[in-house]
Amino acid sequence: MPDVTVLHLSDLHLTPSQSAKIAWVRSLADLRPDVVVDTGDNMAHRDVLDPLLHALEPLRQTAGAFVMGSNDYYAPLPKNPARYLLPDARRLRQRHDPESLPAAELAAALTATGWKDLTNRRDHLDVGDLRIELVGVDDPHLDRDEFPEASVRPEPAGERPTLRLGVTHAPYVRVLDQMHQDRADLILAGHTHGGQLCLPGYGALVTNCDLDRGRAKGLHGWPGARPDAADGTGSTWLHVCAGLGTSPYAPVRFACRPEASLLTLTARPRR
After folding, report:
1. Is the dihedral of CA 113, 262, 174, 90 positive or negative?
2. Is the confidence at residue 271, as pLDDT, over 50?
């Protein structure tokens, strides 16, 4: 089976004035990925839906899937930047009700061009001869995740290769464990911003969830260090994207560059 490339987007936190970011996201279509997966927190302003759809427009011609993050549902609020130094920033109560963002309209626009909405549901994509089985949850950071039951549909007949992807915005341990137990080959997540504030030689200070700091970004195994390629058991691959943006009220990264990730998946040789 030929290699499959997956473009992993996360945490754009887009505002209407970010023309350079919009142009850069549009240019990612030049990478010609086979699949695009968006792990949420796309919006950071109530009037950003049209600029966001313009940014994603070239990528929506490619097979894709998405989940939502908290900043797709609610606009950011001014906060003390020091709150990000807490292990889980939800511990601080917000004094004002956040403003709702057009998450439903975003979901409708993305599904209209064929992307799969994985909000607490399963779906699949066909990419050439490859069948990609998808499972996703709504944002665990808001406790909106409800892991969908396993499908009772029989496996496709024949020798058609299958890839199992788990998709979540925030990589909370409970969700990663569920996706591992569901036999995902790869889990894609965002939310952490790679730590956003990192120290050279030390890495991320926090992850803003219960994931350990050592897996704040990049490719790792879950729950162990790496999958056991010999027999297909052991850990699941986990990729956490450090994302492209920040809250407009904490627009600083240190030793943690913004990113989108292009993953090349290679089939394991038959034994």
Report:
1. negative
2. no
